[in-house]
Structure formats: structure tokens, C-alpha cells
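pasting for the record
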Amino acid sequence: MAGDETFTLLKSSTEFMQQMVTFLCNAVIPGLQERRMEEMMRVSRARSTLREFDSERKEEDGEESEAVQAQREECMAILRNDGRVENDDDNINKKGAPVARIYFPDEGNAALARRDWAGMVPDCVQFSSCGGVTGSKIDVENDMLVFFFCPKASESDSVEELLLETETKSKNLKLSVFVNPNLVDMGVTGFGMAGRMLRERLIDPLPYTYYLRTLSWGALTRVWPRAFSVWQEDESAEGGYRLIKAMSRLPSNPEVEDIYDIENGFANAKSEGGGLLDQLGDFVNGKRMKVPK
């Protein structure tokens, strides 16, 4: 028997997270996009120079002068660093420069990201954790972007404290983003009063800017500012999916299944509301019952 139980939600979301963090940093933090374009141009010029050197070496029987060898090494260094070079005039990494901060569920994952994410995200990104000693010693004054990456229910109190502290102390906070949060859990917060209060206080006010849930027969998606959309697999449709319902809010699991059943003739469309007995039947079947006022 073999398996990999370390392939967690956090690990499976890493590539998406890196791309989103890079995109938002370039879009929001001043000067970062321009610097990245300069780095890409530097890489392009280095590759072009190396091709010229290779062509000249073939013509000259493989001999190169010391000056050419020095230039070759300089070009190789540019390629290794993906165009990044040390620059004292660079304002991106100076003290007081804008920061994009990613909070991981624990310090272990944050430490791994410091090691493994180098070159995958911009230099302005700093890695922190929701819990532990490091979370209480962070200077958030210059945080412009804040990401909570896969926060768990066990860190919900710390997440609230960190979010409040950042919104209070940061001078230029533009955006706070939660990526694949799981802040309400039966085993930790429960689904009772504590879980409901946490949801009303922290989760419900947050708009879904990007949402994707795969289903056995299709998908539920949202890309802000568009509506939530329910799609069914259809080989004859363009892209292999057919839109069957658009909604202004996130539908519950039973609602999604009802949409599929109604679309495919397995159930009849219900009128809004319904009688008390209909609502009681929905409650027994696992759906939310609306209590008459």
C-alpha cells in the first residue's frame, strides 16, 4: 500500500496562488510592473548576446577573449536570476516600500515558501504565519496587499486579529484576499452559534471574486463582477459546457442539485416560498427552511 497524505489543499493550490499573487502585485504595487518589464528585456538581451557569442565561437574555432568570457558570464548570471540585478536605486525593496504579505496557516509552511517560492513571486512578497510568535511581531504598516492562504478553523481567531490589525495600522492597504479558506468546521468552530457568528462577522461580508467548484456533471463558477453560473457538461456545446443557470448569490449544494434536476426533467420547478409543509419537507431533505414571520 502506498500513498501521499502530504498533498494537502494548500499544496494543490500553490501554483494558482503564485500566479494570482504575481498578477495582483504587478497590478497594484507602484513601479513593480515596470521593473518586471525591464527584467524581461534584460533576459531577452542576454539570450540574444549569448547566441551571437556562440555563433562567433563556431567561426573562430571555439576561442574567446577574456572580455567575451566576462560578458558571457554576466549574461548567464542575468538568466539565472531571471533578469533581477542588485540596484541601490531600486525602491521596491527599500525600507518603507509597499509589501504584499501572505499568511500561511503555520510557520512551517511559511518557512517552506520562503525557501521554495524564491523567483516564483515578486521580491515585495513576505511570508508570515497566522499563529505562533511570528504573527504577533509583524510590522504591517507598509502592507499594501494581504493574502490569507488556506486558513483553517483552528486559526480563525488569529485571522480576525491579524486582519483587524492590518486594516487599522497599514497606511496603504488596498486589498485583503482569502484563498480557499476553511474557517467554519464542525470539529473546531461547530455549525452552531459560534460558527454562525464567525460567518456573519468575517466570511459573509467578503465578496467572491473567483470561485470554482467541480461537480460530477458540470461546474459552479464565478469571476467577479459576473454572476455565479452553473454549467453542465455538453459535448455539443462550445468548450464542452452549457450554461444552465446564473445567480446573483452563491447557491447551496441542494440548490445546485435542484437546478440540474429541473434542467434535465428529473424534477419540476418550484414556486418561490411554498407552504409550511413544503418547507418542512425541504428541511427534512437537508435544505434550509424559511420560517414565516
